């Protein structure tokens, strides 16, 4: 058996990576994989059918019952893994024409063989070979360039144009001449039978301790020659093979050629033939396709199953891993091509006019914005400005949090088929939202990045975060956001609990110690604990990464907009929240959430629990059950499981719609943002200037996102550390609350935050009632997201056995998660750097305090800078934070399969889609608290201040 160390030595000895290192090469291969999907799309348009394989689209022969047997006298040097003397394994064989378009067999073409050798349920090996000793391409770039040049070519004229014009423009005249020569050498031959062809591997692979080899499959001795082909029959290769195998077995001899040296038997250059005189072909086994009737129902069913398979040379073991640039690219390219063909991955070509004109328009707006910010332009121009800015941000500000595949790639088993139920329902943990990449966005996936991380351990405590908190964040006087109500504050926490959660060590296990600055009194880090001179903050659990570097963190909940705060992020939690006996509804007790441990309700996510959060959880748990009731009535044959899963889809989509169309425009109160959010969900205004502008510069934005194709913009979907940072909106929370009776307008009581949080929240909401709670929060203002307005209650906050100052925690977390400081943060989002504190804040007192705390404007913490920045008129937070929102708001919708391609009646049911289309926050409130009908705002969002009730018996209002 080849060891990992031996495999690593083979990599270093024989392989050279494009871009200089495996990770750079991997990124290049991902781009090439997307190019191959575009080739498939062009071939589909040319052929007028569905998506086929990028290459080898037509398979004259598919056989499931073949056998591969290694010879009894297998040389000792070639005995490795499954290759052992006399070992025999079942195999599946697909014989194909090489073109990406299904065309008559009379067309000159290369041919191929794909063999899947099944060693055990856990191990198989895919052998892929073509009917020419070498590849027409030296490496992956040339291979993809050739495929793109020939994409859609069906007749001699288009093929000649591809070979003589497109190909030289892509790879150069000399390389194009060599590639055309290789192609001509194979396509001039007349092929009479696929059984009489020899098939050579494309490049080398490792063969245990024997090192690199190439393999070939040639007709076994005694194979009858082919008769003259019937060139009038478009499927003569199939018919010839069917006649042949009906009469006798068809067999091929498996041979290997061993590596000699890099000049005569190169690993990286697939266009160089390993000549038999240098590397003799050594027979090692025999592949037998038993005699059978290919026209039988059984054989036809087998052929159909084979067409659904995805072959990949990387479906093997590390002892037999493919080698060389072309082979390394095949892992990503074949996976993408297969997923695209099977409807699990999508591509959407940007029109040429957009690619040419959008950069010009972006430059024009960039120049204009130096003098007139986007938010001061007329609304339609603001919208176009934002859409072009989003294109820039997508191109420059989407980064994977860590390599999702190994660089270099490693061998893998054949992926398990997609669980059928997960095609039409969300999984518990977010897996299989993207069917081609099941782990994308699932619980446990790492957070991505919008900016290059900047880890500065020397500045972890500079300036002291306690000093920053006390001088710049501490709430001295409550500063209200008068355009909003407290439900808006509760809502964003409700949403963040769905999206993000960094795992933490338990209190006392592993902590960050923040020294208290001189003059600051002692701190108790645990309830009843001793006074200390440091604050202890439980550390986040980072992902172990070889070689260290910037920390990477996993999300314990799914990254998708899937209502996990209601439904949980694992199977056990999700099942425990259901009604007894597997009922479709969520468990409620007297229409409130059921009691859980320590007095906290039993729900999907209940950290930092308080009365406002409880109200929204209760409201949407009731909404889920209302959807279940409507589905039962409309579809009596639907099972309880199906009702539950459909209701979850409906409620999750409704929440996404409310956030997009109601909460966001309420917090960012400008006409341009209102139009932009409506454009995301429903499409842009139907005015001709808007439609023309989008047609010219961003055609994809001409429709709303729901119902379109998923699009990850070149980076696997995840939420980002920067996104989490800009959603640090704790100032929204007041310290004191007044609870009212919605009917009489009488004040029931005034409470502090500590009296309505943790286990005290449920007792209070049951006593107050949901309608009174919603009304009380609906008529109260949250705090403004600004400096000097952090809730006092959260600066001495008990959580999981520790006492924390949440404002200090937020500063510490951002620094240790390598979030760039504010000036670098805004520069990374394409805003001009600040040269002085005076440019940051218009308030002299704030500027003085900033100078007192920080040595330079470049040192200002990101959260402090975002709070200090003067926001656009109507905005509840800064324009810098808004740039992250511009990027991620549409991405959360556009990457989600259940909000794009599977947002359709077959999945949601017609009733479900109607429920989302007609629903909103107001309709949800009124469905469960109809007595509030006269109190909700008439012409605006339910997150705007509600009408207050005149107190009974007086002329006063509350």
Describe the protein in words.
The chain has about 950 residues and is of the alpha+beta class. It has a domain at about 5-340: Catalase core domain (Catalase HpII,  Chain A, domain 1), CATH 2.40.180. It has 29 helices and 17 strands. It has an eight-stranded antiparallel beta barrel with strand order 1-2-3-4-5-7-8-9. The protein has a two-stranded antiparallel ribbon with strand order 10-13. The radius of gyration is 32 Å and the shape is elongated.
Can you lay out the helices and strands and say which pair or pack?
Elements: H1 4-14, H2 22-47, E1 58-70, E2 88-97, E3 111-120, E4 123-130, H3 140-150, H4 156-171, H5 173-187, E5 199-201, E6 205-206, E7 212-219, H6 236-247, E8 250-258, E9 282-289, H7 297-308, H8 325-341, H9 352-369, H10 379-396, H11 465-473, H12 486-499, E10 511-515, E11 523-524, E12 531-532, E13 534-538, H13 564-567, H14 571-576, H15 611-634, H16 640-667, H17 671-682, H18 688-697, H19 721-726, E14 736-740, E15 747-752, H20 760-768, H21 770-778, E16 797-799, E17 802-804, H22 806-816, H23 822-828, H24 844-853, H25 862-868, H26 879-894, H27 905-908, H28 910-918, H29 921-928
Antiparallel strand pairs: 1-2, 1-9, 2-3, 3-4, 4-5, 5-7, 6-7, 7-8, 8-9, 10-13, 11-12, 14-15, 16-17
């Amino acid at each position: 058996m080849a060891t990992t160390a031996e495999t690593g030595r083979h990599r270093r000895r024989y392989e050279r990576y494009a871009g200089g290192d495996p990770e750079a090469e991997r990124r290049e291969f991902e781009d090439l994989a997307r190019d191959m999907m575009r080739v498939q799309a062009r071939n589909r348009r040319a052929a007028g059918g569905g998506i086929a394989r990028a290459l080898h689209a037509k398979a004259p022969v598919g056989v499931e019952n073949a056998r591969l047997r290694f010879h009894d006298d297998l040389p000792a040097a070639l005995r490795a893994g499954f290759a052992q003397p006399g070992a025999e394994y079942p195999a599946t064989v697909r014989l194909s024409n090489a073109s990406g378009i299904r065309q008559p067999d009379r067309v000159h073409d290369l041919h191929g063989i794909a063999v899947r050798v099944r060693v055990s349920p856990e191990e198989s090996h895919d052998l892929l070979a073509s009917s020419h000793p070498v590849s027409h391409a030296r490496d992956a770039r040339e291979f993809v360039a050739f495929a793109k040049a020939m994409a859609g070519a069906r007749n001699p004229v288009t093929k000649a144009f591809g070979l003589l014009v497109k190909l030289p423009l892509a790879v150069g005249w000399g390389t194009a001449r060599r590639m055309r020569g290789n192609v001509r050498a194979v396509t001039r031959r007349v092929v009479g039978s696929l059984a009489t062809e020899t098939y050579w591997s494309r490049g080398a692979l490792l063969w245990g301790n024997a090192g690199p080899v190439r393999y070939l499959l040639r007709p076994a001795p005694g194979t009858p020659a082919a008769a003259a082909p019937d060139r009038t029959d478009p499927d003569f290769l199939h018919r010839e093979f069917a006649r042949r195998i009906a009469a006798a077995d068809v067999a091929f001899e498996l041979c290997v050629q061993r590596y000699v040296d890099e000049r005569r038997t190169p690993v990286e250059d697939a266009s160089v033939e390993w000549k038999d005189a240098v590397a003799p072909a050594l027979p090692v086994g025999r592949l037998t396709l038993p005699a059978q009737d290919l026209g039988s129902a059984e054989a036809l069913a087998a052929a159909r199953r084979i067409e659904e398979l995805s072959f990949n040379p990387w479906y093997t073991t590390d002892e037999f891993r493919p080698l060389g640039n072309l082979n390394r690219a095949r892992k990503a390219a074949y996976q993408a091509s297969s997923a695209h063909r099977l409807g699990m991955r999508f591509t959407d070509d940007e029109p040429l006019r957009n690619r040419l004109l959008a950069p010009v328009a972006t430059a024009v707006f960039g120049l204009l914005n130096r003098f007139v910010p986007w938010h001061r332009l007329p609304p339609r121009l603001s919208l176009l400005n934002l859409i072009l800015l989003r294109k820039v941000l997508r191109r420059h500000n989407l980064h994977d949090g860590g390599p999702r595949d190994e660089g270099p790639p490693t061998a893998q088993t054949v992926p398990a088929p997609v669980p059928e139920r997960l095609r039409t329902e969300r999984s518990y943990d977010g897996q299989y939202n993207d069917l081609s990449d099941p782990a994308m966005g699932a619980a446990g996936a790492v957070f991505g990045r919008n900016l290059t991380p900047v880890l500065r351990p020397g500045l972890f405590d500079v300036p002291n975060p306690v000093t920053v908190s006390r001088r710049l964040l501490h709430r001295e006087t409550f500063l209200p956001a008068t355009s909003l109500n407290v439900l808006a504050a509760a809502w964003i926490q409700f949403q963040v609990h769905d999206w993000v959660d960094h795992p933490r060590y338990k209190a006392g296990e592993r902590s960050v110690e923040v020294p208290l600055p001189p003059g600051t009194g002692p701190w108790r880090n645990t309830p009843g604990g001793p006074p200390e001179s440091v604050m202890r903050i439980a550390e986040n659990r980072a992902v172990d990464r070889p070689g260290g570097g910037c920390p990477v963190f996993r999300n314990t909940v799914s990254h998708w907009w899937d209502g996990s705060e209601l439904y949980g992020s694992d199977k056990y939690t999700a099942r425990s929240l259901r009604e007894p006996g597997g009922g479709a509804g969520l468990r409620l007790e007297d229409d409130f959430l059921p009691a859980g441990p320590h007095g906290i309700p039993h729900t999907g996510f209940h950290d930092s629990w308080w009365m406002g959060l409880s109200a929204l959880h209760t409201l949407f748990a009731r909404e889920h059950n209302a959807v279940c009731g409507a589905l039962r009535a409309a579809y009596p044959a639907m099972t309880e499981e199906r009702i539950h899963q459909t209701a979850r889809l409906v409620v999750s989509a409704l929440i996404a719609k409310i956030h997009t169309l109601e909460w966001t425009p309420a917090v960012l109160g400008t006409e341009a943002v209102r139009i932009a959010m409506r454009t995301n969900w429903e499409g842009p205004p139907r005015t001709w200037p808007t439609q023309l502008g989008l047609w010219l510069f961003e055609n994809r934005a001409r429709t709303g996102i729901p119902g379109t194709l998923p699009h990850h913009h070149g980076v696997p979907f995840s939420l980002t550390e920067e996104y989490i940072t800009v959603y640090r909106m704790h100032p929204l929370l007041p310290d004191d609350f007044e609870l009212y009776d919605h009917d009489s307008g009488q004040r029931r009581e005034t409470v502090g935050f500590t009296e309505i949080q943790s286990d005290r929240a449920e007792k209070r909401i049951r006593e107050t009632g949901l309608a009174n709670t919603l009304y009380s929060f609906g008529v109260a203002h949250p705090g403004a997201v600004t400096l000097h307005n952090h809730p006092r209650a959260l600066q001495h906050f008990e959580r999981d056995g520790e006492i924390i100052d949440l404002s200090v925690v937020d500063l510490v977390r951002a620094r240790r998660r390598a979030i760039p400081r504010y000036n670098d943060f805004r520069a990374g989002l394409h805003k001009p750097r600040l040269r002085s504190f005076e440019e940051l804040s218009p308030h002299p007192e704030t500027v003085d305090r900033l100078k007192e705390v920080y040595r330079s404007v470049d040192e200002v913490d990101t959260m402090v800078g975002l709070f200090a920045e003067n926001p656009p008129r109507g905005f509840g937070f800064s324009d810098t934070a808004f740039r992250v929102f511009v990027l991620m708001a549409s991405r959360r919708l556009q990457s989600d399969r259940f909000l794009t391609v599977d947002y359709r009646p077959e999945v949601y049911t017609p009733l479900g889609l109607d429920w989302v289309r007609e629903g909103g926050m107001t309709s949800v409130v009124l469905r469960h608290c109809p007595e509030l009908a006269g109190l909700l705002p008439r012409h605006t969002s339910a997150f705007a201040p509600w009408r207050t009730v005149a107190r009974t018996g007086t002329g006063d209002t509350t």
